[in-house]
Amino acid sequence: MTYYSNSTGRREYWGYSFSSQVRALLGMDRFGVRTDGLEGLRDLTSDTVRAGIPSLWQAIASYDKDYAYLPKSGSTAIVSEVQGYSDMILNTYFGGGAKGYRNRIYSGSMTSTTASKVNDGQMTNFPYKIADNIGTAETGGQYYQLDMNMDGNGDGASDMVVWYTLSGGYYDAVAQDVRNNYYTYSVGNITYTGLGHSSSSSWNNSGNAASDYEAQLFVNTIIQAYRASVQKPTVSMISDPNNWASEEDYIYLTYDEGELLDADADMTVFNYTLSDSNIIQGDKHIELTYYYSADDGEDKVFGDETVKVKAFTTTTRKKVDGGWEDAGGTDNLESGRVYQADMPAEILERVSSNLNEPIKIYIEARTVLNQTVNNQQRTDYSAYAFDQISIVPRSLFNLD
User: Fold this and answer.
1) What is the end-to-end Cα distance of the chain in Å, rounded?
2) What is the tens place of the pLDDT at every residue in 70-104?
């Protein structure tokens, strides 16, 4: 998104214009000039030096941003050049004028066709294991330096992980400079890739084609980005209140001919488990809603099926060491637990009044993720998951 390439022919400027709008989100705002809450930095002009402004200095520190100190000021003044341009940009302008700018970029002296691994993790191992050094289609450096101090979730650790940097030629002289010469990195739940800087036609040219490793790394990037989004949980109705119990499709309610089922005398429960596989940092929990099928209910979609249902509430318990504990509702449930809920009287009454038509119970669940992003609280929700179980009445044998 930041390289000199687009389909309009004005390849010098598109990446810059686009990235300048989203750079804070992408971790490309080292000095905070595009970060909400640091508006004071945006007022700095090319001929102004701000010094001795405690509120501005404190704000910069609170956002873990770097200070752009004025040389020889004893760290008492901030210069106005706070954009945090990469070394590639500064070097291409060195020599003066657009000629130096164009010659250095397009002569190939600062382009690259290789990348070098910096960190190892899921990005470099799943589903493909990527080599330490890979060939790439022709690419080059970016406009902005990375903010290696970025800690949007406030956990005290950097959110930034650089996986590969550009290598070869100029880039070997500044080997694995993650701040300036990044090729692939992750920041929070955003994954950046440098793939695609060259047009697709150039990939077929001898000596300038993307390697299998680059294509595989791109697949890994897509998988990483997908897994970094909030995925829906798994809810499973089970036969017994144990983690190893099998999944269950039916609950059989035994009754005497001519007698109605009673919520107190015929206490019936249903059991289920919840599982959340999200690996995103933040405070996660699962919330769910119970429904039962009812001809006089409202239409609701479960998977590919639209059914008429009514929502209901009931006592929900979670299994703990030594027994059961009230779950305190269904708005803050945990992954990996076994839960048990009582069958409410309204369902038993409906079963008694229509013994030939099984009633279904549906559980609809989603993951809720609360996290701090760029020093702001944010709540994200997964898609809904669901499971169902049928209540089947079964009469006792008449032994008379």
Assistant:
1) 82
2) 788 777 777 767 788 888 877 776 655 444 444 45
